[in-house]
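Support request from a user on the community tier.

User writes: "When I paste my structure tokens into the form, the page sometimes reloads and wipes my input. The last time it worked, I copied everything first. Here is what I submitted, just in case something in the input itself triggers the reload:"
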């Protein structure tokens, strides 16, 4: 394997790892908000408020995709769709970068 090919493979591998890490962090933030909501965390707390704001921004596109009568189901499904989408798409892109 030439030096150029090895460098390109190493760069693709590092990019793949970075994309997977970003996807994991985004999904973690959303998952953490779901957990904090279900545990009825104090929304007056600065950290809880920050996680809620970040998760709301990340899941803005999916939150009202479906509507449910129970608020906890709305939160779990609305935010959960975004978390799963970030994981699936992020890891698919990372896998594609690994194979390059």
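"...and here is what came back when it finally went through:"
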């Amino acid at each position: 394997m030439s030096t150029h090919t090895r460098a390109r493979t190493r760069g693709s591998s590092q990019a793949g790892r970075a994309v997977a890490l970003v996807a994991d962090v985004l999904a973690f933030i959303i998952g953490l908000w779901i957990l904090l909501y279900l545990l009825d965390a104090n929304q007056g707390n600065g950290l809880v408020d920050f996680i809620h704001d970040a998760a709301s921004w990340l899941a803005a596109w999916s939150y009202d995709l479906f509507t449910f009568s129970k608020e906890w189901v709305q939160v779990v499904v609305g935010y959960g769709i975004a978390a799963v989408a970030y994981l699936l798409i992020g890891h698919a892109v990372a896998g594609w970068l690994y194979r390059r």
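Agent notes: The reload is a front-end session timeout and is unrelated to the input. The two ends are 14 Å apart (CA to CA). The chain has one domain: 3-99. Escalated to web team.
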